[in-house]
Amino acid sequence: MLRILFAALALLSAAVHAKDWAVDPAASTLGFGGTYQGEKFSGRFTRFEAAIRFDPADLTASRFDVSIDVTSAATGNADYDGQLATREFFDFAHFAKAHFVTHGFKPAGKDFVADGTLTIRDRSQPVTLEVEFEPNGDGATLDVRTTLKRLDFGIGSGDWADTGVIANEVPVSAHLVLKPQR
Question: What is the pTM of this model?
């Protein structure tokens, strides 16, 4: 009987520690959107890596550390995609990666808010993510949303800084399919 009690306590103790998750890249997406001359467009980053530690019961130990290969940005429009590589936008030759790391989490109803720092083109800005975490068997899904201001990161400089041509607000969202990291 005592052994069963200790086993139950050990399981309960393990359940309240943040869990490390592996992202299934084939089932996960990281997307962005925008408006160019009044027309909406969307795109995605096809290459990114994420170190995810998350447990709704242990937010103080939870953490996201995401590296995005911005050279993998794709909108499906050859003109847009070519422009993203230029010095006025992401400047792939000098800034091939973006990086996001969290500083803390807070509950927000049944969901969460993650505060962190995003660095693009060597410009770091505070960013707040809306986070939905959904356990599913031994895995989970993680959906995040935010809206960035592209000019805060120097994206779309020169003539492209005109927010009447390209909106400053860029909605960003991710759907991550997670498996327990072993």
Answer: 0.88
